[in-house]
């Protein structure tokens, strides 16, 4: 059972995620966070030491949400290339779903948060490591069971979709449903071209 402090911390993270998704890291002020949470500065800083710590927690939560959606039901899919296709479909669907008011899944990071930068280095999120490990395993399984084309030795993602850790974490705008559908059909054809 969560304590009141844990509930408050989770509320801060959820509301910060909404704000960062809409306004970005740099355009979200501490006052915005205070207004959204109804806390005082002392209350906010009692849970987090800085705005960057809040962003880190919000980012981790966004990755958790993405992972829950993107990997849903994939264990039941027997064909490894079908798993890849479903992952892509579920990822694109979650990325542009109304999970957040702007349709953005991952908030814009502080400068350098996902790469080299003074004091802003951030480890690779667990969800993205899992994505790489799972897809590598799926391709190895497809190669082993003969469903992957023999010359398909390098996995190249099509330009219309790249794994989330490659596309960065700031996604802007919401495309039209028809554009998403066209992209999904293109990717379906692309994944089908890998079959032996």
Structure description:
The protein is an all-alpha fold and 196 residues long. It has a single domain (4-192), classed as Tetracycline Repressor, domain 2 (Orthogonal Bundle). It is built from 7 helices and no strands. The chain has helices at residues 4-23, 30-37, 41-45, 51-70, 80-96, 126-144, 177-192. Helix 1 packs across helix 2 (30-37), helix 1 packs across helix 4 (51-70) and helix 5 packs antiparallel against helix 6 (126-144).
Short description:
The chain contains 7 helices and no strands. The protein is mainly α and 196 residues long.
What count of structural domains? 1
Annotation field: number of helices:
7
Q: Can you identify the CATH superfamily? A: Tetracycline Repressor, domain 2
Distance between the termini: 51 Å
Under the CATH scheme, which class?
Answer: Mainly Alpha
Biggest sheet statistics:
none
Q: Please write the string of helix (H) and strand (E) elements.
A: HHHHHHH
Q: Which CATH-level-2 architecture?
A: Orthogonal Bundle
Low-confidence stretches: 98-105, 107-121, 165-173
What's the overall geometry?
Answer: elongated
Q: Indicate the proportion of strand residues.
A: under 5%
Instruction: Compute the average pLDDT.
Output: 75
CATH domain fold name: Tetracycline Repressor, domain 2
What's the number of extended β-strand segments?
0
């Amino acid at each position: 059972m969560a304590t009141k402090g844990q509930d408050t911390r989770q509320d801060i993270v959820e509301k910060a995620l909404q704000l960062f998704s809409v306004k970005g890291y740099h355009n979200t002020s501490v006052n915005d966070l205070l207004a959204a949470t109804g806390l005082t500065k002392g209350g906010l800083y009692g849970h987090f030491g800085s705005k960057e710590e809040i962003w880190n927690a919000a980012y981790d939560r966004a990755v958790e949400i993405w992972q829950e959606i993107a990997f849903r039901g994939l264990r039941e899919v027997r064909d490894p290339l079908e798993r890849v296709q479903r992952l892509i479909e579920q990822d694109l669907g979650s990325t542009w779903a109304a999970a957040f008011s702007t349709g953005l899944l991952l908030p814009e990071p502080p400068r350098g948060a996902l790469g080299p930068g003074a004091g802003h280095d951030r480890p690779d999120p667990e969800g993205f490591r899992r994505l790489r490990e799972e897809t590598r395993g799926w391709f190895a399984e497809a190669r082993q069971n003969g469903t992957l084309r023999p010359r398909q030795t390098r996995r190249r993602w099509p330009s219309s979709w790249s794994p989330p850790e490659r596309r960065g974490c700031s996604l802007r705008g919401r495309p039209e449903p028809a554009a998403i559908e066209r992209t999904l059909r293109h990717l379906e054809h692309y994944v089908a071209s890998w079959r032996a």
